[in-house]
Amino acid sequence: MWSLETLGRVRLSKYFYMREFLYSEIGNIHRIQNIPENPDLAIERGRAFCTNLLDPLEETFGRIGVRSGYRAPELNRFGNENRLNCARNEYPLECHIWDFENVEIAGASIAIPWFEDRYAHGRDWRDLAYWLYDHLPFAEVWFFPKLCAFNLSWRPDTPRRIDSYIAPKGTLVKAFAEPVEPLTMRQKRYSDFPEFRGLKIA
Fold this sequence. Notes:
By secondary structure, this protein is an alpha+beta fold. Helices cover 37% and strands 13% of the residues. The protein contains eight helices and six strands, in the order H-H-H-H-E-H-E-H-H-E-E-E-E-H. The protein has a six-stranded mixed sheet. It starts with a helix and ends in a 13-residue tail after the last helix.
């Protein structure tokens, strides 16, 4: 218990602690522990994820809601086998398992209340998608219809692939490719967004 308490108190970045990413509804309901097999690796990658992606989002839009963070391999496998909206462990874009030794990735399903309110009144999810593309060094993004929440992932490289289950469904931006819409058109989409606070991507 003490070691789990200590893990939860680890500060990953300016705004986020490890404890926020350990909560699991699947784990609670089915009594499966959600504890990293390699805490040091999970912390290292979680810090990169939070520092590079979540902190700039929080500084720009206000509080970010973490809907599903870290998942232990056993927990994620159970979720996949029981059709609980978990990708299979070996799926290349599975971002919730932060401590696979040979897979450098960390991510979470998040929601941005500032944009969620606007989405509820008809705002196009692609406005946020292109903002993310133009401002953050992410690896992949997957958008979902509920709350306009999305999976956001970090990797050492930044393919910046964007996919969505919201119409128009499919791939919006392919990995390591430029968007179809030019920059000027994308900027018009999000011209009313708050001023970006964070490091500019190269």
